[in-house]
Amino acid sequence: MIPLIGLVLGVLLGLVVSPEVPVWLQPYLPIAVIAALDAVFGATRAALEGIFNDRVFVISILSNVVVAGLIVFLGNQLGVGAQLSTGVVVVLGLRIFSNVAAIRRHLLGA
Amino acid sequence: MPGTPRPRGALERIRRRAGHDPTPEQARRRLRAITSLRLAPGQVVAAVITALLGVALVAQVRAQDEAGLSQLRESELVALLDDVSGRVDDLQQEVLELEADRRRLEGQQGDVAAAEAARERLQSYAILAGTAPVTGPGISVIVDDPDGGMTQTMLLDAIQELRDAGAEAIQVGSVRVVASSHVGVAEGAGGGSVTLDGAVLVPPFRIVAVGEPDTLAGGLAIPGGFLDSLRGAGATVQVVEGDEVLVDAVRPTPDLRWAEPVPATPSS
């Protein structure tokens, strides 16, 4: 519950402060957000499976964000930034779907 | 796996014991445990991270809302470019049409200017041909010659001097002096009186000329000229310069029977 409240508070804070995204961060932020979402769903699943570990959660979310950013950076350097970003988004989307499916199975048994 | 119930059941038991695949009851219990407001350190860390995620999410959504062309995909950019190119073509077409319109209108303005020029030329021709009354600065000469001392030559002199002095319209008595005017002598009881275009000049009469008043008066007043000779013949002459004299005698438009303009030859 507290993480959910944290998410809501963060959204509200973002709405109130409406932070300006710095230019250097602009290519990486969308991918980073998707990666973090993936980690959040993974954490939810882990919590339902009783194996949630806050240290693992922090490390996974940070590594997800950093790796996603690195992939985008590398893609931009190689001139395939758009394609690599698409690939990252597809993979993360697949993982989010599978995590959500697992959560659904755990909670509903179906 | 679906076709082998026994190994699957064993595997499930193992996995459930390890916590990887909970039963729905276990999962719901754990969900309740998560949703209870218990301040475990792990929950606080997760809350901080999800709060950061929330801020990033909103910031990204906002940035996406304000994003310009740089955020668009290639196909969208191509579509946009097509759209803009089509619009540019349309506008260029419109520019061409409007320029054609402008040229047409300017041509009409040229027609107006030509009509204005033609009207002015017609006016000056009307003044020269004496078909229109004229007013303007000039002089008025009153000649009282009861003895009939004025000769044909004196009147010719007067007209000549006035023309030389730049008179633009001349009227003698009630006759407008034009290019075809002629001065003659009518034989009569008094020995002979001067006629202008066949009309006898009965003194006293007035000579009115439109032009630069000082020059006109000076032209008549030169020694041995019109004024001198008339006064020598016993007539009284009075010259009045005016800012506004009226030449009101007009002539009908001449009906030319013989003369025709030579057509302009392009080669010459």
TrEMBL record, chain A:
Family the UniProt entry places it in: Belongs to the sbp family.
Domain of life the protein comes from: Bacteria
Entry keyword set: Cell membrane, Membrane, Transmembrane, Transmembrane helix
Topology in membrane: Multi-pass membrane protein
Full protein name: Small basic family protein
InterPro entries the record matches: DUF1290
Subcellular location: Cell membrane
Annotated transmembrane regions: 29-48, 55-74, 80-97
Pfam families: DUF1290
Native organism: Ornithinimicrobium kibberense
